[in-house]
Design a protein that fits this description.
Keywords: Arsenical resistance. The protein is an alpha/beta fold and about 160 residues long. It contains six helices and four strands. The model has no long low-confidence stretch (mean pLDDT about 85).
Amino acid sequence: MTKKLNVLVLCTGNSARSILGEALFNHLGAGRIRAFSAGSQPSGKVNPVALETLQKHGVPLPGSPQQIVGRVCRPGAPQIDYIFTVCASAAGETCPIWPSHPTTAHWGIPDPAHVEPLEARREAFEVAYRQLEQRIKAFLAMSLETMSADDIKVAAKMIHEAAV
């Protein structure tokens, strides 16, 4: 049995894109991946349209409460293998030192959380969902267990660039 890989999807608010990413990694990873999400400045609540979007697609909702980055890098927390930032501000922030030296990549996705009116917000969440789903499927199609960290980083960047 191969070790389950741990993924962290990181955003500033941890209410929309990172929640979608966590749920999609766990769902599509089918036991191969264990995903978490966190925010450097969590909003304190998950956007209800994020949950609605996941339910619409039959993706199980994330079970963990919103997390602050510090909670997922403290002693005793799972070793993170990959970190994906999904918003520009999280990509530019100073991140904590990760003892496991995970592979990092930036997959910028436009923020759907503040789009108005509500129907336009729902469509923006659908777009974000599809973009994340496409990238995560491409990432999971790789032989992650046998690739070097450098090769994975290059491939994750190429996945993002191909999707833009």
